Amino acid sequence: MDIKQSVDIIESYLDLDRKPVGVKFFFHKEEFDNFQVPQRDRKVTYCNSVQLASRGKAMKLTKENQACPNGAMALKMREVPEPMASGKARFSKNIYHSVEISKSISDSMLFLKEEPVGIAVMPLENYEIDPDVVIVVSNPYNIMRMIQGHAYFNGYTNNLRTCGLQAVCQDLTTYPYNTKDINITLLCPGTRLVANWQFNEIGIGIPFEKWYEVVEGVKETANPFERDKNKEGIVNRLKERGLDASAIRFNENYDDGSYSGGKIQIDK
Questions:
Q1: Count of domains forming the chain
Q2: Mean pLDDT value across residues 121-142
Q3: Are 53 and 186 part of one and the same domain?
């Protein structure tokens, strides 16, 4: 499996409205300069660059392009000021009950440890080299399926961490990058404003080291978890991409015969 094949597979097995996004950090100027993607010509919030990439846009960014101070802090393109590190800044805005709680949030966030020369943010399918992190923003059902795909090879997901703040820059990018583990986010008010995510969208961040096994896990768990209506869509999308659909089996699920009385009845 290569990057293009992995995207074809995940887009076949999940009915995604957005493209999976790859994020690449560059710590050497020559490597950044030689990466053949246009650099953004104006400022943009990091989370909006991810949103734009999910719609097909590719760009490189440096610290001069950063429009959000919190995103820049997560990416080590801006130092964390004392009021933020101490918890005083967020406490002063009544985001948390106490300075101590506010400081614990700051202490728990995992930012980049080394400042990058720049970053690339673009559709995953565009990469010819491995990115560092893959981000997928979609509806909760698709994120559930990706967690199930991860669990297929890794078991229970123990390290999910989120608090509804710095959702794309920290939850989906620097946390997976630092821990080499997946994470989810329910997004946050800031990114929902500036990146205009849909009301029902949430996200998952996956270190690229785990991307292929998540894709394979989603594929392997399709028969037990997907219902026949979804399987019909999977088969159609596989055939549209010229991929083999013979592994999809209908009238078969992990919970067959498990429920007394059949499906729940809803009285109107």
A1: 2
A2: 98
A3: yes
